[in-house]
Specification:
Strand order of the largest sheet: 1-2-3-4-5-6-7-8-9-12-13-14-15-16-17-18
CATH topology of the domain at 131-346 and 354-383: Porin
Number of strands: 18
Structural class: mainly beta
Largest sheet: 16 strands, antiparallel, barrel
Shape: globular
Number of helices: 2
Radius of gyration: 22 Å
Distance between the termini: 29 Å
Order of helices and strands: HEEEEEEEEEHEEEEEEEEE
CATH class of the domain at 131-346 and 354-383: Mainly Beta
CATH architecture of the domain at 131-346 and 354-383: Beta Barrel
Helix content: under 10%
């Protein structure tokens, strides 16, 4: 059914484009694509089924395990007229992953394919410089272009418990996105989205984000998300049976919540020209969020345990690389950082862990070779989860202790 839907989407794009007349300003159909190969080594990592994996012994932890991934994507964009663009993308993904169903060191093959985007984009206002752009369908989205691995907390997170992700260049959303450029220094976004990544699926959320270029070197942004504001099946999002504290009090837990985010970046090169440095060199950026503004007795009593904070700095590469970004994160949640798909009194992380996983770090780099080739590298102790290439990831993270980390290299060819 999914493959049939994708085929029908492609045919629809072609059909609409083919009936448009040249005097309507049709640009036509443009094809694009991507092929990538990546290699990743888990220098040390805890498996999701290893009991008390936070400080696993070498005999039970994954050490020197390899992960190879090949991806390919084809896209078709049809410019119906100067105001309407239709765009669809389809990706195939194959990877070998460590297998916990048998002996450690074994691997399993994982394949998947499906839509990465299927959207309509409408431009409003001045056609050459539209003030409002409306996007509907399935589309990738990012609001913090500075972040390379950590961050993007507002949309890539949950509430109660406040789990977070890492490693995404963009996040796949389904719904409607309205972007408005109110002035040269201010732009904002309104999103009405349906949950397609974590169960329970299809709950509707409302988000608002704004960005202000307050001064030439400084950019600040903020946002709020009413997460699962309109649940499709309320019992799945907020069950009728409340949780009970050790003292016998009943507490009504829910996956719903209000999230808030603030971020900033500072580029000293905007005020002190440094011609030997690259475009991204010396940029400093940071982001913080509250993953649920409301406290719940006993289970979520302290708002500071729901505030992840990250900071990043682009080390000077002097044009030899596009960027070298060093990022660090602190998140003092006592709960496992996993989006378990049920509402319950979430167990506090294993006592032996303490706050050993509160700090995460990542060093990311990229080198472009012309317009078509990119080489990316990373060494990190972050929230690694292997994804299916389409925006859906595993539930459990692999890097869960301070001595666990991995490195990766990725080659990308785009056309």
């Amino acid at each position: 059914m999914r493959n049939l839907s994708c085929m029908l989407g492609v045919l629809l794009v072609l059909a609409v484009a083919s009936v448009c007349r040249a005097d309507e300003g049709v640009v036509g159909i443009r094809a694009s694509g991507m092929v990538s190969y990546s290699i990743l080594q888990l220098v040390k990592a805890g498996g999701k089924n290893v009991e008390y994996r936070y400080f696993t012994a070498p005999s039970t932890a994954f050490e020197r395990a390899w992960v190879h991934t090949v991806e390919g994507e084809l896209g078709i964009a049809a410019r119906v007229n100067r105001r309407l663009l239709l765009d669809i993308g389809y990706r195939a993904h194959i990877a070998n992953l460590p297998w916990e169903g048998g002996e450690f060191g074994n691997q399993r093959e994982f394949t998947n394919s499906g839509l990465t985007r299927a959207k309509a984009v409408v431009s409003l206002g001045d056609i050459d410089n539209p003030a409002v752009v409306v996007t509907g369908g399935i589309f990738p989205f990012t609001y913090n272009s500075d972040a390379k691995d950590l961050g993007e907390y507002l949309l890539m997170s949950g509430c109660y418990p406040g789990y977070v992700y890492s490693g995404f260049e963009s996040f796949k959303l389904a719904g409607i996105h309205v972007h408005h450029r109110a002035a040269e220094i201010y732009a904002h976004d309104l999103l009405v989205t349906s949950e397609i990544v974590q169960v329970p699926y299809w709950d509707f959320s409302l988000s608002y984000l704004g960005e202000l270029r307050a001064a030439d070197p400084l950019t600040v942004g903020a946002g709020v998300m009413f997460y699962r504001l309109l649940p499709v099946k309320p019992d799945n999002t907020t069950p009728e049976s409340p949780a009970t504290t050790p003292g016998g009090d009943e507490v009504q837990l829910t996956l719903r919540g209000v999230k808030a985010m603030v971020r900033a970046s500072f580029d000293i090169k905007k005020i002190v020209p440094m011609p030997l440095l690259g475009e991204h060199d010396l940029k400093l950026y940071a982001e913080a969020a509250v993953l649920g503004v409301k406290d719940y007795e006993y289970f979520y009593p302290d708002i500071t345990e729901r505030i992840p904070v990250m900071a990043g700095f682009n080390v000077p590469a002097f044009g030899l690389l596009d960027y070298i970004s060093a990022e660090v994160e602190w998140y003092g949640s006592p709960h496992d950082n996993n989006p378990i798909p049920e509402v319950k009194a979430y167990m506090v992380g294993h006592p032996d862990r303490g706050h050993g996983d509160d700090v995460k770090w990542a060093v990311s780099l990229q080198r472009s070779l012309g317009d078509n080739v990119k080489i990316q590298g990373r060494a990190a102790s972050d929230h690694l989860r292997f994804d299916d290439g389409l925006g859906t990831t595993e539930v459990y993270e692999w890097i869960v202790a301070p001595d666990q980390w991995y490195w990766s290299l990725k080659g990308i060819f785009v056309f």
